[in-house]
Amino acid sequence: MIKFLCPNCSVKLTAPEDRAGKLSKCPRCKSRITIPQQFLTKPSDAQEKVEISTTNSTKPLDEMMFDLPGKQNRSDDESELRQRERQQLESLGFKTVPQYTGERKFPWPIDVLLYPCSEPGLTSLAIIIGIPFVLSLIQRFVGLLSAVLALPLFLVNILIGLYAGWYFAECVWDSAKGGTRAPEVFGASVDLSYMWSRVLYLSAVYIIFILPFILYRMYTSRMDVIFWVLASWAVVFFPMGLLTMVMFDSSDALNPLFLLISIFRVFFQYVGLLILLGMLSSLIWLVQVVFRGQAQTIWLEVVGVMTSGYGAFVMAHVLGRFYWRYKEKLNWGDIKTPT
Fold this sequence. Notes:
By secondary structure, this protein is mainly alpha-helical. The chain has 2 domains: about 1-70, no CATH class; about 110-330, no CATH class. The protein is built from 11 helices and 6 strands.
């Protein structure tokens, strides 16, 4: 018998000597392998021993050549091994990445609305919404000092805005991997240059697809053909472009032709996504009108601000979840991220 290891997945295999030099298929990783000449590899406790079966069968030889342990047994062993590795890494002070399944604890409409309800999510919400709001109150009530504090408060708001853009992108990314609650980012060693480049990439999507509509709306009150063309441009391309940029930091996110092809691959699902995002945006706008535009007390204004921030988290989750569900149809595997 010839004993050897699969060159791709390292599972231990055995084969009859008369099969030496012939092609076959590994039963675990399904890759094509060539059975080597006679040699012996010392087995280890961590490796699995797999015997070649010479049972006569009408099935192809490649399917019957190997007699592997049951899939359930292998899955249990691998799960236990991964759990043990995570425990060892955590005992050494390393932070392990959570293993997501994408399963929801509650019906999806409720679970989507509960997305920001995690400790890091609520903390980020307090930072993104609470600090600018407190600063605006300070500027409102300091009177004569408002001119002196204007520049520092402006710079602080800019920094908070950059952090918000980065964290919302992380929410989209985490949801696209199967996360169902706002992700943990505090305590992790985050590269500030990476954060800055991330925000710049996302800003490029905003400039290309949203800014033209906003500028046209600011400098003219007409609702003409140009208005509706720019509005359609923003509505159709911005969500897909933002998702592409978050997932791959790729210039394809700025290519309308690439985005249009991706949209047609998931046309009906994407229409549903736009409708859902539109409903959430309308709800946020309605709250703004009721609680901020006509607020008689500061507490009503707080409710309006908190609702806006909370809704932004939910929309980021919905966008990432869209990729998690339809990534195979989108077929973005060939996108190359910049180095």
